[in-house]
Amino acid sequence: MGALAIFFLIGASWMNQAQVLPGVSVSETGLNGSITDIIWDDDGMEALALVETNGQTDLFARTLLDSGDWGWQALDCGCNVTSIGGGGDEWVIGGQSGWMGVLTSAGGEISPRSLNWAGEGPDIIALDGGISSGWIIAGDSSVQHVHTWNGLEVSEGATYPISEIALNDVVEVAGGALIIGYDRSSNPTLGMSSEVLIDAARNSSSAPHLTLLHRGAGSPFHTIVPMDDSSFIAIIAGGDAIYAVTMDRNIHRVVDSIGIKSIAIDSDEVIWFVNQNGLYTHNIGDENSAEIVLPNGVNDDLLGASFSGDNVVMFSSDASNRVTIDPSAQHSVLRSLSLLGDLILVMTFIGFAGFGGHALLRKHELI
User: Fold this and answer.
1) Measured between alpha carbons, how far is 71 from 65 in angstroms, rounded to an integer?
2) How many helical (H) and strand (E) elements, i.e. helices and strands, does the chain have?
3) Among 5, 46, 242, 268, which lies 20 to 30 A Cα-Cα from 234?
4) d(CA 172, CA 189)
5) pLDDT tens column, 183-239
């Protein structure tokens, strides 16, 4: 009887631990503040990040240090940095008064680009693209203009005709760019509100064409995740919902979830998101999301989610800790207690079936 009780206790403990996500590691970053934006290279080793500390935004790079270890170091752009963009091994950096720079290695030097603005350069609110061309939102809190650049030439600026809509981020996607913003016509005491998504198309050196794709109630969008080799060109996340955008610019609501703070997509197109209740995953097309149980001691108050190499990476709200998740660990019998438990259960069933069959054959003197 005692052995049976111990068996059940061990089984219950195993089942509880099997719910914990495998392949999770935590490391210190040495950063202080809050990561407001981060872009990794294709290998998931180098990164460029904006870190806000006491209202001051600074530029940091994750690179191979002189000590031989990977770590973060501050970068001096000689500017008042406002935004970062790009990807792969090419980052673009925006600043006040129309300043722009490019970086081809996180440990290298920033190369300023003297863009040919028509008049005094405006503050760059957001930008994206590569070294040779890209997209810019410039202006102030009252008026924003959308530009393209090619080399050092900047196009005319386009403003969206509805003055109540403010624009705050742009990401280059297949066929143009996607822009997110918010509606200023709502109750000012509630802060930013309304989901706003705009499609932008190049127009030679003239102002880009802007087309409203979505304007709906809810907390504003905060993240655009571009997608390659997929039936979708991007995933858009806001405080209340996640949407997918197709190549022909159709919008599909993927999942509703209150308080979404950060989002990333892994190589299997599984969405990882953090909301006010914790960490979840969602397969596009599924009805429900799966809650993720992190190992003991891992804080689920995470921000700055992104896909880095083969891993999903997030940071604590004060940027002091990095949480790295290997999605493939869930499918490894050696690393997942859940899969290992399933295997043991199957082997146990086969063992009992074999033992019972052998006993039955002996009973009937067939062996």
Assistant:
1) 6
2) 2, 28
3) 46
4) 33
5) 887 655 555 678 999 999 998 779 999 999 999 888 899 999 999 888 999 999 999
Cα-based angle 83, 89, 91 (whole degrees, multiple of 5): 15
- d(CA 94, CA 41) in angstroms, rounded, equals 18
Look at 115-119, 322-326, 349-353 and tell me which has the smallest mean pLDDT: 349-353
Q: Which stretch of DSSP H or E encloses residue 364?
A: none
In tens, the pLDDT along 261-309 reads 999 999 899 999 999 889 999 998 898 999 988 888 888 789 999 999 8
Spatial distance between the Cα atoms of 115 and 154, rounded to a whole number of angstroms = 7
CA–CA distance, 49 with 39 (Å, rounded to integer): 6
The tokens describing 253, both together, are 């609501």
- Reference 208, options 162, 166, 145, 122; nearest CA is 145
pLDDT of residue 4: 45
Residues of the chain with CATH 2.130.10.10: 24-332
**One-letter amino acid for residue 325 of the chain:** I
Q: What sign has the CA pseudo-torsion 73, 77, 83, 89?
A: negative
Quote the CA–CA distance of 235 and 311 in Å, as a whole number: 18
* CATH architecture type of domain 24-332: 7 Propeller (2.130)
Question: Nearest-5° angle of CA 92, CA 93, CA 95?
Answer: 150
Q: Cα–Cα distance between 229 and 231 in angstroms, integer?
A: 7
